[in-house]
Amino acid sequence: MRTRELHLGLMFWATGTHAAGWRHPDAVADAAYDIELIQEVSRSAERAKLDFVFLGDRLASDPALQHSNPAQISRLEPFATAAAIAAATTHIGVVVTANPTYSDPYGIARLLASLDHLSEGRAAWNLVTGADPAAALNFGRDAHWDTERRYDWAEETLAVVRRLWDAAPDPDGTGSRRIDHRGRYFSVDGPLDVARPPQGHVVVFSAGTSDRSRELGARDADVVFAGPQPTFAKRKEYYADIRARAARHGRADRVAVLPGLTPIVAPTTEEAVALHDLLNALLVLDPEREVGDIVRAGGIGEGHRRNLTSASEVFGVDVRGHDLADAVPAAVLAGVSEEGARRLAEITRLTRRTVGGPAPITYGDLVHATPAQLSHVVVGNPEEVADMIQEWFEEGAADGFNIYPAYVPGAVTAFTELVVPVLQRRGLFRKEYRGRTLRDHLGLALPPR
User: Fold this and answer.
1) Is the distance from CB of 336 to CB of 369 less than 8 angstroms?
2) Which helix or strand (DSSP H or E) is residue 347 part of?
3) Phi, psi values for residue 397, rounded to 5°
4) pTM, whole model, 2 decimals?
5) CA distance linking residue 280 with residue 363, whole number of Å
6) Which runs of consecutive H residues, i.e. helices, occur in 24-64?
7) Angle, helices 35-47/78-88, rounded to nearest 10 degrees
8) Is the link from the previous residue into 25 a cis peptide, with omega within 30 of 0?
9) Coil, helix or strand for 256?
10) Rounded distance between C-alpha atoms, residue 221 and residue 1, angstroms
11) Of 24, 62, 164, 256, which is the most buried if we count CB atoms within 10 A?
């Protein structure tokens, strides 16, 4: 059994993962098309010895995301971006998202094998089936497939892709063979016209909370990218479930579970809280007349709007008609729902403001806590952020994290230069890469043909 190690990746959304990250004074609002910036951010992550840079994809655009998830409105195609990152770096892994629901296995195998050669063994495939129905209308379909069909399709795709890699020629052009696959959805003869990837099989990531996604991740993925969970107990439950499923497939120590994490970090706690407040103050709020679960948020579906009317629904008390900067009376917050109480605790964790305390919770805090979060958020100085990472790692809630920078490049620099050294000093994270490939970083063996 391999020694358990902490793994860290960088989720790269050029305008930041905070909905107002692009409005931060130090952000680059058009960074999605600034390849020099993308390459420099990737080099920054590499200097900190992170495992990988992660490139998402969505296959659709939607102006409705402008206030909830602006980074997903417009960005470069991930394979082209990954090639540029690979050319500017030497060790860090490059994860690209490819959706088999709208692709064929021969094309995916060919693109990923090519990227693995270009990067000298640093490529990974984030296998998603797509949670966003908008993509269907861009690919000649009337509707997005249901979960069962998408996962049936994805599982056959993955099997064919791996067979194509195994049957691909060596770099000298010898050793290739046909696969003559005849399956439920695909007929593929092969062989691939690209040599077998340097990693044998390109590293596979998957994500999702459905039973089908958990099973695919446990059986076939090398890394499971875990979404947000409402409580620490739920996070541990998810982690244990993936581990138990992987064990049933004989892969207990071959799957890493990495949740998303948004660190709002600064040299002092007070500065970190002020930065968190600044980002929230830059958010564009929804008109009070607009309520309900109708805000599109891209790949994470829909969520509540940012206004006091929606906050009243979520917290279970009427807080409409107040100035957002005003403190909420403790008597009002005494009547919140069970879900409202959970969210009040989250507000205190992030802002250090309390119900009726010297720094009281404000109406604005309620509004900012109303929409669903993209990932777990931690606000604090470097030691406090490292404490949270260490706790999750040691308590069996995560094998590491995919870091969501709230804005770019400042939040990347803050994490890599303030938090990573603390983790290294504690012996939790590597100070040097042990090899050149992503499989080396993740401790994964080279699969035989």
Assistant:
1) no
2) helix 338-351
3) -110, -15
4) 0.94
5) 13
6) 35-47
7) 60
8) no
9) strand
10) 18
11) 164
Give the SS3 label for residue 123: strand
Residues 438/124, Cβ–Cβ less than 8 Å: yes
Look-up of token digits 């009337």 = 142
Count H helices and E strands in the chain, helices first: 15, 13
How far apart are alpha carbons 73 and 112 in whole angstroms?
25
Mean pLDDT for the stretch of residues 200-227 = 94
Measure the CA–CA gap between 319 and 369, rounded to whole angstroms: 13
Query: Which of the four pLDDT bands, split at 50, 70 and 90, describes residue 130?
Result: confident
CA–CA distances in Å: residue 261 to residues 240, 321, 375, 402, 408: 19, 33, 5, 6, 15
* Chain segment 352-383, per-residue pLDDT in tens: 999 989 999 999 999 999 987 778 999 999 99
Do residues 387 and 395 make contact, with C-beta atoms less than 8 angstroms apart? no
Which residue did the predictor score with more confidence, 184 or 130?
A: 184
Q: Do 44 and 412 contact (CB within 8 A), yes or no?
A: yes
Which tens digit of pLDDT belongs to each residue from 249-283?
999 889 999 999 999 999 999 999 999 999 999 99
CB 335 within 8 A of CB 317: yes
Locate tokens 């010297």: which residue? 358
Consecutive H or E run containing 264: strand 256-265
**Residues near 425 by beta carbon (within 8 Å), at least 6 away in sequence:** none
